[in-house]
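EI: anyone free to look at a 227-residue chain?
SC: sure, send it
EI:
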Amino acid sequence: MNNVYSIDLSLRPTTFDLWHVCLAATVVLLAFILIAVLLSVLIGHRRCVKKAEQMRQQMAANEPETKVVEKIVEVEKVVEVPVEKIVEVPGPAPEPVVLKEATPEAALQLLGMLQKEARFIDFINEDVSQYGDADVGVAARVVHEGCKKVIDEHFSLTTIRQETEGSKVTLDEGFNSAEIRLTGNIVGKPPFTGTLIHKGWRVTEYHLPKLTEKHDPKIIAPAEVEL
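SC: here you go
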């Protein structure tokens, strides 16, 4: 079981039998075949290269001459025509409602003149329920005369409507709502037809006396002390 087989590669055969002859012939034949194949490949490659070169030369000979034509491109000058820019102008914005603060000096001054000429404050603050109609009428006459005197001296008045009170009037669309106040059953849109209840008043002129710098307009009427 432990036999060891060794091969001596340095040994050379000393005899040639038929098997060795066939083997040597086969080797020589394969060598010739390989050489023939290599030669055929080289020849085919040279033929292909030569054929490709011939085709390239033929194509070069048959290719028409390329004429270079200079193309002149005319560049048209673009003239910029000014175009008027259309600007949309917004419509006028509605005017804001400005609330004016009334100066109290003029109102206090007028109230003081009514008190001076017509005892207006006294009459208003008097309890007239304890007086008869005749007494109230007499006092009202005095107040009326004094008030009219103040109004006539410092104000110029005119009526807004010239028609007679109680007559029919027609108000067209766009009438001044500050001058005319509608009352009653208001339905639909103008024109309106109704009865003139009051003509209205408008001040066309007014002039109040100038006050001195030290005058206190809050004092409507000074207290009176008889000595």
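EI: Confidence is low (pLDDT under 50) at residues 65-76.
SC: 👍
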